[in-house]
Amino acid sequence: MAARHRTRRATAGAVVAFALAAVVAGCGGDSPAETTRRAESAVESLASRASEAVESATAEAERRLDDIKDGIDVKDDVRLGTVTVGSDGRARVEVTVANTGDATRSFAVQVDFTDTDGGLLDTVVVTVDDVPAGESSTVTARGTHDLSGEVRAEVARALRY
Predict the structure, then answer these.
(1) Contact between residue 115 and residue 150 where contact means Cβ atoms under 8 Å apart
(2) Residue 103 burial by Cβ neighbours in a 10 Å radius (0-12, 13-18, 19+)
(3) Taking the CB of residue 131, how many other CB atoms lie within 10 A of it?
(4) Which residues pair with 111 in a beta bridge?
(5) Virtual torsion, Cα 127, 133, 136, 142, nearest 10 deg
(6) Which of 4, 15, 22, 61 is 20 to 30 A from 47, alpha carbon to alpha carbon?
(7) Beta strands in 1-151 (DSSP E)
(8) For residue 120, which of 54, 56, 62 has the smallest C-alpha distance?
(9) Angle at 147 between CA 146 and CA 153, to 5 degrees
(10) Do residues 72 and 161 lie in contact, with contact meaning Cβ atoms separated by under 8 Å?
(11) Would you give per-residue pLDDT tens digits along the chain (161 residues)?
C-alpha cells in the first residue's frame, strides 16, 4: 500500500498540467468550482490508472522471477549505469552482470525506476543469457511507461540460473 501511495503522489504531479489543460479547454461555461471539481476528478483518475499500471508491471516482474527454478540471489553481482530518459519518455539504464560462478550461467534482473523520493515509477525484468564463468555482460533495461523528471534506478532482485 505504501508503494501505491508513493506512486500516486509521484504520478499526480506529472498529470496535473495535462488534466487541468484538458478540463479548462472543455469547460467554457462552467463555474470555477465545477472546473476545479472536474480537474480534481481527472487527476485522480489518471493517477489511479498510472498506479494500477505500475502495480501490474511489478506483479508481472515478481511472477517472472518466481518462475525461475534453482535461481541464486546475485544482487551484489549487478551494476547499473546512469539512467537516461529518451525522447520517447522511456527510462533506460545499462545493466552489467558479473558471472562469479564456475560455469556459463544466465541472469534475470529486476530493475526498479524510482523518483528522487524512492517512489516506484516503473519496473522491468531483463535477462542476460549465457554469460561465461568469470566474465561480465551488459544489456539495456528499458522502462515500459512514459516518465519525466529525475529518474533513478535500483536493482530490486537478481537471479543467476
Answers:
(1) yes
(2) exposed
(3) 19
(4) 124, 155
(5) 0
(6) 61
(7) 72-73, 78-80, 84-85, 90-98, 105-114, 120-131, 136-146
(8) 54
(9) 120
(10) yes
(11) 444 334 434 444 444 444 444 444 444 556 555 555 554 444 444 444 556 666 766 777 777 777 788 889 999 999 999 999 999 999 999 999 999 999 999 999 999 999 999 999 999 999 999 999 999 999 999 999 899 889 999 999 999 99
Q: Which pTM was predicted?
A: 0.65
Cα separation of 116 and 144, whole Å? 19
Phi-psi category of 130—alpha, beta or left, where left has phi over 0 and alpha has psi -120 to 50?
left
Half-sphere exposure of 117 (CA within 13 A, CB side): 11
The grid cell for 122 is 516503473
Contact 144, 89 (CB under 8 A): no
Nearest CA to 12 out of 34, 45, 60 is that of 45
